[in-house]
Amino acid sequence: MTVDLGTARDWLLAERERVAGEIAELQGDLGHSMEDAVDEDGNDSHLADSATETLDRGIELSLEDNASHLLASIDGALQRLDEGTYGRCERCGGRIDDDRLDALPHAMQCIDCKRREERG
């Protein structure tokens, strides 16, 4: 393996911090009630305001979900670094190509196994 493990760890830790901050920000945005978001002045809000807030919340929930999955992948990669299994495909046990790890340091599978998984 020619991937520098120290560099990979540094990137993963920095990315973990960034993603965790993103999740905290999204959770803060989602912490207010729908009523507070669309009825700031105590008057009935317009239906379009409620629809916009509902759409925004759906997007924020989706972003939070995606960020949570990314955080879990990063944590898994850090665990594999600690265990000495980083760079090994979790499906077939083969080596993950260095170019794939450079592009996606938290990759859990080699490209062939990932393609098979995506095809179903």
SSE ordering? HHHHH
Percent strand? under 5%
Mean pLDDT: 88
Shape: elongated
Oligomeric state of the chains? single chain
Q: State the helicity in percent bands.
A: 55-70%
Low-confidence stretches: none
Structural class: mainly alpha
How would you characterize this protein structure?
With 120 residues, the chain is mostly helical. The chain has a domain at 5-86. 69% of the residues lie in helices and 0% in strands. The chain contains 5 helices and no strands. It has helices at 5-30, 34-38, 47-83, 98-103, 111-119. Helix 1 (5-30) runs antiparallel to helix 3. The two termini are 29 Å apart. The mean pLDDT is 88.
Summarize the structure.
The chain has 120 residues and is mostly helical. It contains 5 helices and no strands.
